Amino acid sequence: MQNADQGTPQPGDPRLNGDKLSIGIVQARFNASITDSLTQACHAELLALGVREDNIDLITVPGALEVPVALLTMAEKLKYDALVAIGCIIRGETYHFELVANESGAGVSRVALDYGLPIANAILTTENLAQAVARQTEKGRDAARVAVEMANLLEED
Q: What would the pLDDT profile of 122-131 be if each residue is shown by its tens digit?
């Protein structure tokens, strides 16, 4: 394991070198204007980190509740060094927000732990559309960095 005192990796740091990695992305189509932007930002950052275009796979699913089962299918292939979960859940007037947020988050974590596979969770949970828009680009980039850094961390052992 790496020394925790190394701080946040910056461009050029070997922890963010994606040139030998294969990354899978699962994108929920619900709230597509947000999830499309998240995916575009994630994809662009993966390329900037050196992940080859032909080593990035994208699957789309209807909504955030379907993301974990698609992640599971990808994890079972044993092809990917890391996965990224992308979605957007915006609070409404009913309890449905909590149900979708909690269950999708738990499902993403379960797949990661069951397979020992890093999964960057970029499923936004926001109070309103403005909050989602404000986070869509940076969260997409962050997810790419997390996926690459964690894949490299697990490769060290």
A: 999 999 999 9
Query: Does residue 96 have an active-site annotation?
Result: yes
| pTM of the predicted model as reported, rounded to 2 decimal places | 0.92
Q: What is the pLDDT of residues 41-83, one digit of tens each?
A: 999 999 999 999 999 999 999 999 999 999 999 999 999 999 9
For CA atoms 141, 144, 150, 156, give the dihedral sign: negative
Domain boundaries, the chain: 38-92+105-143
State the fold for domain 38-92+105-143.
Answer: Rossmann fold (3.40.50)
Angle between helices 32-48 and 129-156 (to 10 degrees): 30
Q: Which of 13, 19, 96, 127 is catalytic?
A: 96
